[in-house]
Design brief:
Blueprint (H helix, E strand, L loop, with lengths): L1 H20 L2 H12 L10 H4 L4 E7 L4 H11 L5 E6 L5 H13 L1 H6 L2 E3 L12 H16 L4 E6 L3 E2 L3 H8 L7 E2 L9 H6 L1 E4 L12 E6 L16 E3 H9 L4 H9 L9 H7 L8 E2 L4 E2 L18 H6 L4 E2 L7 H11 L35 H13 L5 H4 L6
Parallel strand pairs: 1-2, 1-4, 2-3, 6-10, 11-12
Antiparallel strand pairs: 4-9, 5-12, 7-8
Keywords: Glycoprotein, Glycosyltransferase, Membrane, Transferase, Transmembrane, Transmembrane helix
InterPro entries: GLCAT14A/B/C (IPR044610), Glyco_trans_14 (IPR003406)
Organism: Cephalotus follicularis
């Protein structure tokens, strides 16, 4: 029985590899159609005009269209790239709504830096299909454009700084730096996540269901050390290329292993970076997210509200999660941190005429202009603390126990 499960797991992993390495061409074709951009319309070259460039994956599930559109406007910048993955389970009307939103926004069409995954994946909660979706997005973004860091967000995330703030704060950082929260102290996760044998139906089925559990369990690995941490990361292009191209066998070996790991996005990148001789000293042990957990922590973080606003700002972090749709605290963040008016973009030099004017459209003459504000200073304070020499042992991948 155990042998059958391992054979089946190998088949699932093979399907996952096919998604990563075979389908990007087909998806790129679909993206081009949805983007509705011609070469004559592209007037900006973001990777040239701005000091650093970010590539975003924004993942959304059924019922997330309103949150997705709001989050995209809040984090949009012509110097970055944005890939939207609307889960396959979402009804056709929601996929069409997102496609229409992207196609109808003049700035998106003019710059040509917002795309939608044309063949989305089914995603199971706690299954490796979420990891598969992230790796797939990385492969697509590597092939399509030049950027410095990859950021994965969900539709329930929201920025606490403008993109001008983020670009300015990151412009002086080493380009090989990876923000990955990691720890080798897995505790209960060893028994509840590493030892079970599971199968994720979303890797091969069109019908959504929870992961399947085998009766038998497996031993802990001895060929590599397990690490765990936050599923939210900011990864360097160099490390992303290593994840996808895998010029040694470690990325593929760990991908096979994490096909049978519960909540694999919270362990794959941590274990890969910390077991790689080349990248283990490139980590900053932080996910740059403000997340509030109950005590003791539950499976999901607390929903953030107005009472959390002050702590979010004082944390100096550039992102926070999770938020309810149209929560009042989002209006406060828009007004006080992002200078974002209803239905417009966050404040930025690329579209602003004055200090308080909201961003409603692109000003070509402002291409390459940055107008960072207090958010940049807050973020720089956090980055200085994280990267200080006194924290070097906390940053690096040092096995504990």
């Amino acid at each position: 029985m155990v042998t059958k499960f391992f054979v089946f797991s190998f088949i699932l992993a093979s399907i996952l590899f096919s998604i990563l390495y075979i389908l990007p061409n087909e998806l790129t074709t679909s993206l081009t159609k949805l983007n509705l951009v011609t070469d004559s319309n592209i007037v900006l070259k973001p990777n040239i005009t701005y000091p650093v460039t970010f590539a975003y994956l924004i993942s959304a599930s059924k019922g997330d269209t309103i949150k997705l559109k709001r989050a995209l406007r809040a984090i949009y910048h012509p110097g970055n790239y944005y890939l939207i993955h609307m889960e396959k389970e979402a009804p056709d009307v929601e996929h069409e709504e997102v496609a229409e939103f992207v196609a109808s926004e003049p700035v998106f069409e003019l710059v040509g830096n917002v795309w939608i995954v044309g063949m989305p994946n089914m995603v199971s909660y706690r299954g490796p299909s979420m990891l598969s979706t992230t790796l797939h997005a990385m492969a697509m973004l590597l092939r399509r454009c030049k950027w410095d860091w990859f950021i994965n967000l969900s539709a329930s995330d929201y920025p606490l700084v403008t993109q001008d703030d983020l670009i300015q704060a990151f412009s002086s950082l080493p380009r090989d730096l990876n923000f990955i929260q990691h720890s080798s102290r897995l505790g209960w996760k060893l028994s509840k996540r590493a030892k079970p044998i599971i199968i994720d139906p979303a890797l091969y089925s069109l019908n959504k269901s929870d992961i399947w559990w085998a009766i038998k369990r497996r031993d802990l690995p001895t060929a590599f050390k397990l690490y765990s941490g936050s599923a939210w990361t900011i990864l360097s292009r160099s490390f992303v290329e290593y994840c996808i191209l895998g010029y040694d066998n470690l990325p593929r070996t760990l991908l096979l292993y994490y096909t049978n790991f519960v909540s694999s996005p919270e362990g794959y990148f941590q274990t890969l970076v910390c077991n790689s001789e080349e990248y283990k000293n490139t980590t900053a042990n932080h996910d740059l997210h403000y997340i509030s957990w109950d005590t003791p922590p539950k499976q999901h973080p607390r929903i953030l509200g107005l009472r959390d606003y002050r702590r979010m700002v004082l944390s100096n972090r550039p992102f926070a999660r999770k938020f309810k749709q149209n929560s009042p605290v989002l209006n406060k963040i828009d007004r006080e941190l992002l200078k974002r008016h209803r239905g417009q973009f966050s404040y930025g030099g690329w579209c602003s005429a004055g200090n308080v004017t909201g961003c409603s459209g692109l000003r070509i003459e402002n291409s390459g202009v940055l107008r960072p504000g207090p958010g940049s200073r807050r973020l720089k304070t956090l980055l200085t603390r994280i990267l200080s020499p006194s924290n070097v042992t906390k940053r690096q991948c040092i096995p504990l126990g």
